[in-house]
Amino acid sequence: MEQIELQSTDPESRGTGSKNDRDRLGLARLGKKSVLQRSFGILSILGFSCTILATWEGLFALFLMPLSNGGSAGAIYSYILAWIGTFCTFVVIAELASMAPTSGGQYHWCAMLAPPHMMKFLSYITGWVTVIGWQAGFASAAYLAGTEIQGAAILAYSNYTPHAWQGTLILWAAVVLALGINLGGGGFLSRLETVVLVVHILGFFGILIPLTYMGRHRSSSEVFQEFLNGGHLPTQGVSWFVGMMGSVFAFAGGDAAVHMAEEVQNASVAVPRAILLSILINGTLGFSMLIAVLFCMGDIETALATPTGYPYMEIFHQITGSVSGALGMSSVVLIIGVTSVIGMLAATSRQLWAFARDRGVPGWRIWSHVSTSRALPTNSIYLTMAICCLLGLINIGSSVALNDVVSMTVSGLYTSYLIVVALLFYRRTTGQISRIPQGDSMVANVPGAELVWGPFHVPGIWGAMVNACALIYILIIIFFSFWPTQLPVTAENMNYSVVGTWGTIFLAVLYYAEAKLRQLWGILLLLNAVSFETEQSTETKIGEADRLSLKRTETTVSASSVSTFTPQVSQALKNIGMSASEIRSIKEILHNTTVDDLRLCLLNNAKNDNPDALLLRFLRARKFDLAKSFNMILRSMLWRLKTVKVEEKVLLNSELKALQESRDKSNPHEAKEAEAFLAQLRMGKCYQHGCDKQGRPVGVVRVKLHKPSAQSSEVINRFILHVIESTRLLLVPPVDTVTIVFDMTGFTLSNMEYAPVKFIIECFQDNYPESLGTMLIHNAPWVFSGIWKVIKGWMDPVIVSKVHFTYKAKDLCQFIDHDKLPKELGGGEDWTYQYTEPVDGENALMDDTVTRDALQAERLKIGEELLRSTSQWIKAANERNDAEVKAVKAKRDEIIEQLRLNYWKVDPYTRGRHDLDRKNIVQDGGKVEFYPGTTSPDVSSGSEVKVPGIAHVEQTKRNAIPI
Question: Where along the chain is composition biased (Polar residues) (predicted)?
């Protein structure tokens, strides 16, 4: 974060400073630098907010939705619910705007309210759904303005034949007009909004008076009691909720003032007032106009069938009896519609600019630029205009498809509201927000800092009740925003907003994960003697991916004597949020650890796995927190290298070696330990067999066979690691998790031993993260319930969520096919575990040290190439060189495949054979065969494919970033 000087904010200094100084200091308390001109006062920002909402005008444009799905009565009651729900929602939004009046809005509030371990990811997703909502909202406003003008042309010229491309051209014209006004600068927009506010209010009366005076009045029973299910939805209630989306959209954009906050004087007071006053004013005007239209609309069927596409134009025509009169009344709606586009461009571009400023979008360096001559984010304005124009092209292909953009507005904006409203509800009900600052810090309401209420705040139980009502309302709106407006659903009338909304979120998550992966790789490269230039964010640490600007040095891959901990490493760890004490701890554990130690450990840990997939599992395990992920993977590598010595004591110390040691009577203790280890294998205390319905390898633990006194802790730990490492060889991309069945049949307290359980939990939580798909605890007796309460307390909540208790075979068959479940578990497969004894000479290749060393040298060379290509990948991504990124990623994929193939060459020289090898389940080149001569599950699709002869699943290359 850029260091911003904070001057005193005591009452005396506030009294002597100018308004701009106070606003600048207020923004600095939020960690932001004031760079935009504050040209909006309370009246102009109220006008801005009112004309973007344009509720009574918007109802005319969206009148068809609540009328066709709800009827007259449905339109009234859905409007009332939408008004109340919107007001509750924006009371909460106003509270947040008063606490932190920044253009970022929702994603900044999410960052300041979310728990630390979820803060970055949640704020990133919130930022993107806000981008979706506002970009879709701007395109929707422009689309409505363009097609309304086209509808007026149809009304004026009955022989005019409209074309979709003409509506798109008018849309573009409205956007270009909005662009010109937005680039005017010098406070022109704020002055214009004050004028438009007057037009907004006077225009209301200009339409309401002739409408009520000249129109034919319907009866109150027709207005308040007639419901309609024009979309043939399952029930009238569902139809009513679906139709309510029109009223909800009429209130869309209520947070517009928030995104202009950095251009508003006294924003912490003016913005909340503007938000709430605009909801009250627009809600009142909208409700009055809705009642008037429903009473005076005349022939409903004719209005709905109007060729203009907008029933209100036909209603005006029926009332006035003349085209000129109808056009005159419609022109008021059209003027506000076009001016709404102007304001929408401003608010949408500011939200995008703020998110880019915090590095949340690709190309953030470009989109966060502020023109010094205009004091405007011109690049974000241009990009927003371009996105709108591109979305306008959809209208040429299908106007119905573009209507889904309206639903994306609702789903996107209300999803962002949901996140921050829920977080605020949690914080306020747990008393974590202060009325006044408690400490001496000059920074508040930023991630990790103190939370303090702003000038506007609903105290006590009333605030909690309003917050709860808003939360319930938002959930309802999001749910019904994805519904189609009519049945049966076809490709033409399908509501694709769910695809647009969640598709964008999915792509955002991919971008986020890849960016975090690059940054984690960057720190690991530093440990491997690659030098970086680091850059600090000038703002908050939201979207901090890609902060490491790579710069290769001549010491990229150097001798084993090079120390792993350098000043560059220390700075990089500081940049990702590690404290000084944590950095010192990292330095201590890296003492006497060389570059080659870590490089070899990383390659050994990867084995036949994709290194990117390996790192992503550590990232997911720590919620993409870079500091925690790096700490976890480093300690895991050193655990493998120095603590349990996996390569030396587990892989080299094979089953055959254990058999040989058990026969060697010269060392009785070693022979006893070896015999105890083999006993675990022979009895089948734990075995691997088959796959579950998801294609995951299944491991079965027969708990009743464990006798605490039968073996030492060293033996049982060795056995556990032996099973885990052998199971890793069964993982076939894209499947990278396992299913474990703990068969508790016959379990008694005499079988219980806590130490091995703790060791298993330590392995899966700290050293093999995200490797467990499902854990099935089968047929547990009642005495286990108390034991489970203890064990559950040691486990991460994520792992606990993967645990399922089963008691009958049919329960297990929900996860494993009946014909793949052994009979001992109640399944239909006639298979019994039998251990295959080691054979002398099966590890003969391990004695060929010359070939082994040559293959390992080749592996190290490939590893060095991977480091180089990774450094090039990071550098190209930081420079936003898309062509170079694509080329380097293709090169990396080839290197990663070479690394995988090399592993299977090295494997016979470095890993002793085990039972799975002797049964030919694990075959040369990484092939896995569980069911010879039968159908084998296609793990990449979940379908069954017939395989002639020996069925096998072949290891295939993983994508660079398999999310």
Answer: 1-18
**For 302-343, what is each residue's pLDDT tens digit?**
777 788 888 888 888 888 889 999 999 999 999 999 999 999
Q: What is the CATH number of the domain that holds 701?
A: 3.40.525.10
Residue 700: domain span: 650-825
Residue where one domain finishes, among candidates 772, 790, 825: 825
Please count the structural domains in the chain: 3
For residues 312 and 372, state if they share a domain. Answer: yes
Q: pLDDT tens digits for 522-576?
A: 888 887 765 434 333 333 333 333 332 223 333 343 444 455 677 888 888 888 8
Q: Which residues of 725-735 are buried (b: 16+ CB within 10 A; e: fewer)?
A: bbbbbbbbbeb
937 pLDDT band (50/70/90 cuts)?
very low
pTM > 0.90: yes or no: no
Residue 243 contacts residue 51 (beta carbons within 8 Å)? no
Question: Is the omega angle on the peptide bond into residue 488 within 30 degrees of 0, that is, cis?
Answer: yes
* Cα Rg of the chain (Å, integer): 33
**DSSP annotation string for 612-656:** HHHHHHHHHHTTT-HHHHHHHHHHHHHIIIIIS-IIIIIISS-HH
For strands 686-691 and 697-702, give the pairing: antiparallel
Per residue, the 3-state secondary structure of 453-501, as one string, reads CCCCCCCHHHHHHHHHHHHHHHHHHHHHHCCCCCCCCCCCCCCCHHHHH
- 521 and 629 share a domain? yes
Residue at 588: amino acid letter: E
* 260 φ/ψ angles, rounded to the nearest 5 degrees: -100, 10
Cα separation, 645 vs 192, in Å, equals: 72
pLDDT at 950 over 50: no
- 234-258 per-position pLDDT tens digit: 999 999 999 998 899 889 888 999 9
